[in-house]
Amino acid sequence: MKFINDILKIITEYGSSYLTGAGNTLLLALIGTVIGCIIGFAVGTVQATPLPEKGGKRVLMRIVRGILRGYVEIFRGTPMIVQAVFIHYGMFYMGLKPAIWFSGILVVSINTGAYMAETVRGGIMSIDQGQFEGAKAIGMTHNQTMINVILPQALRNIIPQIGNNFIINVKDTAVMSIIAFMDLFSIHKSVVGSNYLYFPSAVLTMAIYLTMTLVSSVLLRWWEDKMAGDANYDIVNTKDTLAQTSGLYRAKKKEAKR
Amino acid sequence: MSHSVLEVKNLSKTFGTHLVLQDVSLTVNPGDVTSIIGSSGSGKSTFLRCINLLETPTSGQIIFHGDEVTAPGFDAPSYRAKVGMVFQSFNLFNNMTVLDNCLVGQTKVLKKDKKDAQDMAMMYLERVGMAPYINARPSQLSGGQKQRVAIARALAMEPEILLFDEPTSALDPEMVGEVLDVMHDLAGSGMTMLVVTHEMAFARDVSNHVVFLSDGLVCEEGSAEEIFGNPQQERTREFLARYMAR
Ligand SMILES: Nc1ncnc2c1ncn2[C@@H]1O[C@H](COP(=O)(O)OP(=O)(O)OP(=O)(O)O)[C@@H](O)[C@H]1O
Ligand SMILES: [Mg+2]
Question: B6-244, which class in CATH?
Fold first, then answer.
């Protein structure tokens, strides 16, 4: 009974704070995932581009790739909580005064970008070589091929991983309380700091996180299905009778051409 | 001869130390239907792929309307736009409908406006009998249908020559006919075609020039009558005997 009362007490006193915190968590996760995906697509695409045969361009590409590789390794290889203090206080140290939202979005985006870069690279590499050749054969340049043919297919293939990253971000942005970002977990910490109701607040916080991730899962499934396209297509009626009879073309005898 | 569409001179290609093509020469005049035959691994696909620069030739020259394709700094994409290619495995864009497959090259590469591109696409889709399927995706089509769309996609670019790499080899037997019929029709309309095929009847009845490749060398070439009616080389005879016996 006491437990129910405590929960109700927290909800009536701090309910709107929890909701604000949950809102901030979702917004940070969403923006960070979107920007992270953009970074990931840019980096992953460069990483999956074949090196030019020779010359200065090849050297340049090698250098760019090396730098991007370093970025991926550093941000995949360190905890986000450490990246947060590194970047946020790093900027202060250099005399900048970043808003907390700015630092928060920056950290989550860069971190997500590092993971997405590898996902996108894998997504591109999994596309059948024939798709590249089909595009090349009608005269598309490498960039046209990527934009019109390869990346749309890669995107469709990696939607599950994008969703996965978003859900991870909903949970892992909890570490942003380290730079005083007002996410859901920060609210929990500040509430228990004043009323010591650790367990009831933890239950409430858990419940809110779980609700957010479950709803996200459902929405992501829906998006995935939508991107898969129609299962059916309409036969279009044409006036042209050739269309119906084409299978019956009879071979015309070859003419002497030489 | 100076009005040839395509002239290949002494083309060689090695993969590592493996010499796959050796001094292959070929002239294609406007309206020619040239068939390239030969056993598996003889270098037929490699030859076609060198022609539209999907592979870089190791040595030799490819001359397209007097321009040297193999010269350094040659604009490969705009050359490829004029040389159509139909693949054994279709290679239709899986993320697009049938219609978009036939539009994208026209709008992005040739920079045509949407309306003209659409008219052109519809014209060729009707010609190959695929107009009713413009809203379908490649995964929803049969192999024969896919290949006919692939042919329409290539034709919509209005190429000066069309390369076919075993266009019917990946098809179920009952679908081979519909694709060969379309190719027959194209040949009759004066399209310049270079066809790698195992369909000997097609090579015999449709082409006016036949090249028999063996181990990366042109073993014998001539008119269809000459190659099929009176082959001069022992290897050609053996090859044809094996095929005709099937
Ligand atoms: N990318 C490559 N790297 C190395 N070797 C290759 C490559 N492509 C082709 N080859 C080799 O070149 C030779 C000729 O291959 P190619 O595909 O041109 O033969 P083909 O005449 O088209 O045969 P098929 O009738 O089976 O299609 C083969 O021995 C093949 O193993
Ligand atoms: Mg082949």
Answer: alpha beta
> CA-CA distance, A106 to A83, in Å (whole number)?
10
- Ligand 1, CB cutoff 6 Å, lining residues: B 15, 18, 20, 38, 40-46
Q: What is the best residue among B46, B56, B200 to mutate for testing ligand 1's pocket, by most ligand atoms within 8 Å of CB?
A: B46
Residues of chain A in contact with residue B204, where contact means CB-CB under 8 angstroms, are none
Domain count, chain A: 1
Indicate the residue of B109, B130, B223 with minimum beta-carbon distance to A140.
B109
Pairing of strands B193-196, B33-37: parallel
The Cα B140–Cα B9 span in angstroms is 42
Render pLDDT for B117-169 as a digit per residue (tens, 0 to 9): 999 999 999 999 999 999 999 999 999 999 999 999 999 999 999 999 999 99
Task: Provide the token pair at A101.
Answer: 């939202």
Q: What does chain B come to in residues?
A: 246
C-alpha span between B185 and A252 (Å, rounded): 7
Low-confidence ranges of chain A (pLDDT < 50): 240-258
Nearest CA-CA distance, residue B241 and chain A, Å:
24
* Residue whose entry in the numeric block shows the structure tokens 């779980």: A210
Query: Which-ligand-closest: CA of B38?
Result: 1
> Hey, which of B12, B15, B196, B198 would you mutate to test ligand 1's pocket, going by the most ligand atoms within 8 Å of its Cβ?
B15
Please indicate, yes or no, if residue A248 is contained in any of the structural domains: no
Quick one: DSSP state of residue A94?
A: T
